[in-house]
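[SOLVED] Need 3D model of a two-part complex

Original post:
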Amino acid sequence: MTTTAPRSLTSRQPIYEGSRVPSPIPTVLRTSQELLDTGDVMTVNFGPNHPSTHGVLRLVVDLYGEDVTGLEAVIGYLHTGFEKTMEQKTWWKCITYPERIDYVSFQNNEYVFVAAVEKLLALEIPPKAVWMRTLLNELNRIHSHLVWLGTSALELGAISMFWYAFRERDLVLDLSELVTGYRMHTRYFQVGGLAEDVPRGFYPECRKFCDWMPRAIDDYESMLTRNKIWLERTEGLGLLSAEDAIALGQSGPVLRASGVDWDIRRAEPYLAYHQVDFRVPVFQAGDVYARYRVHIEEMRESVRIVEQCLDRLEHMEGEPWIADDRKVVLPPRHELHTSMESLIHHFKIVTEGFRVPEGEAYVAIESPRGELGCYVCSDGGPKPWRVKFRAPSFVALQATATCMTDALIADMIAIVGSLDTVMGEVDR
Amino acid sequence: METVEAHRETTIVVDVAGLVDAATALRDDHGFNFLSDITAVDYLGWGGGDVSGYIGTRTGRDLNSPMTQGFQAVPLAKPKRFAVNYHLLSISERPRRVRLQAWVDEGEPVPTLIPVWPTADWHEREAWDLMGIAIEGHPNMKRLLLDDDWEGHPLRKDYPVGGEPVRFSGEA
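Solution:
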């Protein structure tokens, strides 16, 4: 546990005086009337189909020469109604949906939904499942940060970064395939634990990855951290002060790059995070470069957490990986041939679904993008009454107008990219 | 004002009239400086099913349609149709969460909380767009995720699932 002496949660020196959040609409930057009267302001549609919008984001931008004077983000192009669909499915069939909401950090999304259901059920999870979930969540964080790093650098012209980042991303997906059978959208977490035991051969493969990954991160850093072009494209851009970040509900790397020492994994530990040793990187500058540094440092910490999980898991051979609650968890496969009761339970859970006690719960975890929340409401039946996801990308995009204040059009790509949004999650 | 503890979570239920005051007090006096999320829930038809064990409903179980077995207990009735939940967080040395809950009926407006937490902007637009919660005083109230000319609010329980006519481009 690394919770050291209490620190001040906000940065010592404000990044800029006062607040830059536009008023009265916090998410829209408006061009002043005098400037509009000059007739030199051009309104440009950026997106929705633009290769560097990370999906289908549309930005309506007012330009005065190269200066961005007005900006409004328009979203919804990827809205698929996940929350409505989940109300039509039984609880255990719903697990496949969250991972498709944020398809880059699928494992974290899967976990937050399962955790919310388990909170309503008050279900105890066996230690092996807890540690394995922690491990997979951290591998997934590395995966997500690599996708962010590769694509953001690509958008600023650092093409080689993309190949390096995706090389290691593939290693993570290989591990995912080894454990779950799928490279993405694994549906490996069940209510109660894991779907299957950890396969033989996973731990050594994962160790190899942990040995390799720090060196790969050194490679990335040698390419970018002191690269003059990278520094000029990222330093001092997209400023967001600690106070504005909190007011705008920012979380995750964006918040920590603004000097707020906040990580849900440490503040409200879930899974096994209170038993592992890790550092929470915080940078004070509140710019694109600081966000880059947070992502890099977080990957290093994630590798350390994965190693500590492996230390524990290697001594858990033969332990149960799922809770023993026959009303919720499918019975072991081999029992179906010999036990009438097991067959009935299996049949009941598959056709009818299990029942979740009446009530509502909100569970928040630190996903790679920040606070990922899941609100579930049950009426006591086999289907959710309401499911709602607090998507960190959705909230991050609200900061676009603040970050883009006094920016140039050429920097927009760097700034919007640094907020690390996944449009699937924004639109849900 | 009423405080409910359930599932290791605290819910503070307030009247719509006192929502802004309660929110301001929670932010200024109790340190809830961070609005995580706004979730609107439609309770139309809540607890409408019959009670049964695993045997059958009073009206008889439809064998061809799974999940018509009814509840084991009828859930507690709700005061009004919609609940608007504000999930608050205190980013401080003493992290804690609370849910602020207000109940409204169809068409009853909820005051905007943008002056308290600017992040409420899109959350409130989403609540209007998908659930039809009228927000009073929002400076930019329009649909967020759906088309501007969309009819209805899809997350409501009386919104039809499937069977809607598909609109093709070029059609009037």
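Edit: The CA atoms of residues 112 and 151 of chain A lie 26 Å apart.
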